[in-house]
Design a protein that fits this description.
This protein has 3 domains: 129 residues, Sandwich (Immunoglobulin-like), CATH 2.60.40.420; 134 residues, Cupredoxins -  blue copper proteins (Immunoglobulin-like, Sandwich), CATH 2.60.40.420; 115 residues, Cupredoxins -  blue copper proteins (Immunoglobulin-like). It has 3 helices and 34 strands. It is globular and about 60 Å long.
Length: 434
């Protein structure tokens, strides 16, 4: 009897895969030119797996055009303080959602975040208070700044990848990525998912990894990478895979032809990349009205070469620590007991990040972005501008900071438990402000 029951339980159930949901778009409360005004409420859901939300499921997509001003009224309906950090956007320090020099938004309070956006790109927003718990719990959303000079594709998709932490098991999620987490969701829906695209069209796809710990190692035929963290690449890239660590983004142009394809994730270890585990199917794209694949669009690529890597560093950050101790350090220090390094506003300091730990770390800096001069001694093929960059095990990244936005800026590993266990410091741009 027992055996029969078990056999029935184990029989493979082929549930029809759900269609990829599109992100809900934020409603602009004052539709006037040049401003977008949005209200967000951080609230509890009652769901133990994703206990928090900015609305209905994951946060709404906020869409701006270069030069727009955004105003977001955040109401905190949580029992704990919270903030919003605008990951990748050069905001004034008081709008950055960090608690180094500013107070978080208390339960019951409303705070207005407002700033203008000058840099087109794919960004996201999330709390910067009790960050791992609040982000993992469901507080995140996409923020897109459109470039008015870019061509218009036939369709555009934004895909937010997240995964629940273990202990909050997600139904239907594949195992993988070690024992730490349940399977990936895309736009809040559990993978695998399906999507139907029309043959002969160009689709612009924005990818955002908001997981606190999980790396994505995405594979699909014919990847055409057009943009990174901070807008368009200088030239089209056609890599075999896209690795996105926590906090990282990329943009791809899909040329939909007459054949479907599958996007899979290759389980990736923080301790050194690809693993022996089987790939996991995330999204199956089916084609309706098959047609020959169109040509790519004329994206505003500049062709810019990377800045030569000079033989000096202005700042060196040594990342160290281990899973064994669960303690993580930058230059032997743990946030908030850190030395504040300072650079002049308008300067272009060279920062070397050395990873002396057996774990990869996505290096992230607030308020300003950087050019990658070299990674493990190799310059990138073209100029490469990022705010989040994965540093491989024992790897060495050399960066040129575009230090144009004054303030005290959090600089940290975007594996959120690492940041919370100390792997965060402060970089001051310009004079200290009172
Ligand atoms: Cu995505 Cu310090 O943040
Ligand atoms: Cu880390």
């Amino acid at each position: 009897m027992r055996l029969i029951a078990l056999a029935i339980l184990c029989a493979p159930t082929v549930a029809p895969a759900q269609a990829l949901p599109r992100l809900p778009e934020a409603i602009d409360l004052e539709p006037a030119d040049g401003t977008v005004h949005v209200e967000l409420t951080a609230a509890e859901t009652g769901d133990p797996v994703f206990p928090y939300t900015y609305g209905d499921g994951i946060g709404p997509l906020i869409r701006l055009r270069r030069g727009d001003t955004l105003a977001v009224d955040l109401t905190n309906a949580l029992p704990d303080p919270t903030t919003i950090h605008w990951h990748g956007v050069a905001v004034p320090e008081a709008m950055d959602g960090t608690t180094w020099r500013f107070d978080p938004v208390q339960p019951g309070e409303t705070f207005r975040y407002t700033f203008a956006v000058e840099q087109p790109g794919t960004f996201w927003y999330h709390p910067h208070f009790d960050t791992a718990r609040q982000v993992d719990g469901g507080l995140f959303g996409a923020l897109i700044v459109d470039d008015p000079d870019a061509p218009t594709p036939d369709d555009a998709l934004t895909l937010i990848f997240d995964r629940a932490m273990e202990g909050h098991d997600s139904p239907g999620g594949p195992a993988g990525h070690g024992a730490l987490m349940a399977g990936w969701r895309i736009n809040g829906a559990h993978t695998p998912l399906t999507h139907t695209a029309r043959g002969g069209t160009v689709v612009r796809v924005r990818l955002i990894n908001v997981s606190s710990v999980g790396y994505l190692d995405l594979r699909w035929p014919g990847i055409r990478l057009i943009a990174g963290d901070q807008g368009f690449l200088p030239a089209l890239a056609t890599p075999e895979r896209i690795v996105l660590g926590p906090g990282d983004r990329a943009e791809v142009e899909w040329l939909v032809g007459d054949e479907g394809f599958t996007i899979s994730d290759h389980p990736y270890s923080l301790n050194g990349g690809a693993t022996w585990q089987d790939p996991v199917e995330l999204l199956r794209v089916e084609v309706e009205d098959p047609a020959p694949a169109p040509a790519g669009l004329d994206w505003p690529f500049t062709g810019a070469a990377p800045t030569p890597d000079p033989p000096y560093s202005d700042i060196v950050y040594v990342f160290a620590g281990s899973d064994r101790t669960g303690r993580w350090f930058i230059n032997g220090e743990q946030f908030p007991d850190v030395t504040v390094e300072a650079v002049a506003e308008g300067s272009r300091p060279v920062i070397e990040v050395r990873n002396q730990s057996p774990t990869e770390h996505p290096f992230h800096i607030h308020g300003n972005h950087f050019e990658v001069l070299s990674l493990d001694g190799e310059p990138p093929p073209h100029a490469m501008f990022e705010d989040t960059l994965n540093i491989p095990v024992h790897g060495r990244a050399r960066l040129r900071l575009l230090a144009d936005n004054p303030g005290d800026w959090m600089t940290h590993c975007h594996i959120l438990p690492h940041a919370e266990d100390g792997m965060m410091t402060v970089l001051r741009v310009g004079e200290p402000t009172p």
